[in-house]
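User: Can you recover a sequence for this backbone? Please restate the input before giving your answer.

Assistant: Of course. Working from this structure:
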């Protein structure tokens, strides 16, 4: 894919920020969306333009459309990177948090694609990149809301890929494994809103916290992940899906090759759900 005009969401830190930098280094003009655009002031330049963008704010999204229409008249690549993970037992997950999870990880990428479609249609070879997760393939305990949102995003990507092909717009689904970023810290902080003080799982809290931090254990460095992603973007024979990062191959294979009961038992043991004593103690708490 030749350098052109890109819009990336969620660029304050991590994958979004690094991707913006690496694309600019390859000749792209990048509009870097962030809820706090001032966080990008140290890397802003002629071809790296920070935009105020909360993906759950329709006015912000329309503002991006107007800015790109005025500045460029087209868009060559949309990267839906913004997202977050609500952690905790799904049976106790507040519905407000569940809605927020889907609004950010599912509805927002779709609204971005719908809103910016007229500009993508003006490109000679447009591409939508949706950042999913291997968690959308293999569901793990205490991350059901996040896993469900990424599975939904994968399905939306599949539909978009087939439905936009006649218009010359490609869709790439990225399914990262564990990547070093602020995701783990943010996910752990989410427990303050998703895990009730009187949770029946309190005896397993250390396992819940460990799941929130899991993506950071032996995580692939962000710069390495992005370098591999950029190579995939530049590949003339680009696949429909790419998996990059620690666990991005083994976890899907586990789901594909092992009987479901075996997978359940492995994960139950990993997250303390086989400890009958702990479960009973938690239920009494």
């Amino acid at each position: 894919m030749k350098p052109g005009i890109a819009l990336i969401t969620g660029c304050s830190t991590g994958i979004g920020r690094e991707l913006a930098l690496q694309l600019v280094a390859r000749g792209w003009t990048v509009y870097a969306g962030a809820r706090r655009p001032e966080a990008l002031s140290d890397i802003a330049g002629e071809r790296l333009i920070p935009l105020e963008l909360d993906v759950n704010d329709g006015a912000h999204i329309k503002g991006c459309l107007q800015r790109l229409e005025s500045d460029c008249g087209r868009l060559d690549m949309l990267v839906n990177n913004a997202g977050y993970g609500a952690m905790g037992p799904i049976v106790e997950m507040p519905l407000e948090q569940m809605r927020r999870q889907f609004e950010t990880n599912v509805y927002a990428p779709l609204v971005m694609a719908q809103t910016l479609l007229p500009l993508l249609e003006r490109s000679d070879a447009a591409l939508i990149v949706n950042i999913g997760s291997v968690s959308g393939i293999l569901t793990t305990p205490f991350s059901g809301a996040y896993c469900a949102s990424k599975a939904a995003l994968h399905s939306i990507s599949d539909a978009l890929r087939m439905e936009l092909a006649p218009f010359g717009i490609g869709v790439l689904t990225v399914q990262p494994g564990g990547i070093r970023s602020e995701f783990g810290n943010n996910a752990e902080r989410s427990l303050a809103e998703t895990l009730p003080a009187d949770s029946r799982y309190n005896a397993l809290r250390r396992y819940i916290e460990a799941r929130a931090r899991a993506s950071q254990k032996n995580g692939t460095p962000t710069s390495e992940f992005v370098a591999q992603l950029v190579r995939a973007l530049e590949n003339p024979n680009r696949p429909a899906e790419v998996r990059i990062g620690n666990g991005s191959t083994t976890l899907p294979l586990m789901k594909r090759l092992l009987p479901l009961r075996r997978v359940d038992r492995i994960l139950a043991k990993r997250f303390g759900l086989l400890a009958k004593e702990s479960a009973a103690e938690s239920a009494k708490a």
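That completes the design. Residues 97 and 226 are 29 Å apart (CA to CA).
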